[in-house]
């Protein structure tokens, strides 16, 4: 149990215990009938239980977050590997024995609280570290850059991105005129936009996405020396994504897809984990990078230029007890830093320092939100701040000011042992101006494009075509193609072709640089941990084989479900009943990572739904396996079995052998085969 868990226990109240009472603790006689003048008569105003119950219901909502409204959270711990005293005095980064409690909230950006988990969108990755020196909030995203360079453009960006004001459409989607109008008029967005068009915008799981602090921050050590730093979270399970058609279907079949995935992984003990990595840049190297101002949040520093040093491990190991109390009420503030970590002059970061505190005042209706259990520091809080809405503490004493002699002059400022702002030298005229070092808006979009594998490039082109295909204004489409032409001529042509825009004339040469670390194709592909496999079964399957296959996959950590035309049991080849996990109708291929069709149930090939499972899974690049009569179903799905020898994720065997399970496991771990020719598959 962490210090934070112990602190939270004091606030836990079981829903299901003892006698029902009012909020005043008065036992309630009956909660099914309001107090009436006669059984058919009018209700009486004096019914305090009715009044209170309805009043409490009416006030259940607080304003949802203006961005990142939809999210899900989990508790966990962070541990640093080795002391980082060389760079920082932050206690949680210098003591390898410290297990720092954390709460992490993952989110989408555009949609409202009830929207689905899988739109094409940026994902938030916000971590509250409850350190012994107070709370540090690392409020990051799953993409390392941002759309804009100056926070003053954030309201414009978000207005353009969110549903349009006249009709509140479309929900949780960037594929509309106002978003593309804005970004094509504000070319600094072009780098982030290409990330948004990539598979990064549709993660398979929160557990399989990276996180980034985005801005350059500062670490400060005991000698007052400052080192610039960029924070990276790298998922142990690798960085993997859905495909767009799948993501759209999941939005209907299971809008809670990513949320459920995280919840189930943690509740089954498969704790997700990320490594914290730092890109460290000594002060004196700040101006060394060609074309990159480290204060510009639309730029990365490629890992090949400044390596990411692994420094610690985050593990999420406990689901929240209550969604509202914890996940909804957690209040991240970018300004929450601890001694040893400091800000830089990145103008996007500077604006965030105001926004997060301000937004919490709106959400909580007052300044005491820091007392809400999930937000409370584990470090002692001692100061002379007081009163306000929802004061939960009872400050004791009379000297609520400093200096004082009536209270022993306490609490006393810590002096140099407290948070000392880095004494950066600042000098300049007041002016509304962007630095010229922020002027390049295209070369890193080109870097990203050049770093993609061929299938990633195809997905990006398809995404631009989809999004711009929804844009009604032709001048906006033309503008986008003009921008893409400055990123890469071939990309511009490919997109233009798909959206009815004339091919542009080549204007600039691609610089040819790339950064292999940017490609998801280079992410680890070794584990089947928590991968979900649907085995399509019907009467006649061989129980022994299905069980053996299930056991092999389960032993390696995969989750195997038996899906049949109806729920309950099927009759196996031995004539015995075998329990299935659920009926096919209640699920869909898009909710699984892979499909297997075993031998012995030839009738399944005549079940259109079962055939659709296989066709769709194949189309989405998933591992599809079949043996014996199962092959008939794949044929009906028009899966070209003749390609099996060249397709590592199409495992087609004439009959069962244990090799099938081995090969299938390999394909499952590889996530997807996106090199398949899928155009002709009817799904
Ligand atoms: Fe945020 N952002 N943001 N943002 N952001 C919010 O704060 C804002 C930015 C991010 O799970 C809001 O508590 C401004 C960058 C995450 O609770 C709000 C600017 C990055 C979350 C806000 C940015 C983020 C938020 C809404 C430009 C990645 C969800 C509710 C200056 C590094 C936190 C809230 C959670 C939430 C403002 C830009 C990440 C309105 C003004 C860059 C993960 O304060």
TrEMBL record:
Extract the Pfam families matched here. Catalase (PF00199), Catalase-rel (PF06628), Catalase_C (PF18011)
Q: Which UniProt keywords apply?
A: Heme, Hydrogen peroxide, Iron, Metal-binding, Oxidoreductase, Peroxidase
Q: Which domain of life is it from?
A: Bacteria
Looking up InterPro entries in the UniProt record yields: Catalase, Catalase_AS, Catalase_clade2, Catalase_clade2_helical, Catalase_core, Catalase_haem_BS, Catalase_immune_responsive, Catalase_large_C
Could you list the residue ranges forming a coiled coil in this record?
none
Annotated Catalase core domain ranges read 21-410
**According to the UniProt entry, what is the EC number of this protein?**
1.11.1.6
What GO molecular functions are on record for this protein? catalase activity
Give, as one word, the top-level EC class: oxidoreductase
* Catalytic activity entry: 2 H2O2 = O2 + 2 H2O
The segment annotated Disordered runs over 1-38
Record's function text: Decomposes hydrogen peroxide into water and oxygen; serves to protect cells from the toxic effects of hydrogen peroxide.
Family recorded in the similarity comment = Belongs to the catalase family. HPII subfamily.
* Protein name as catalogued: Catalase
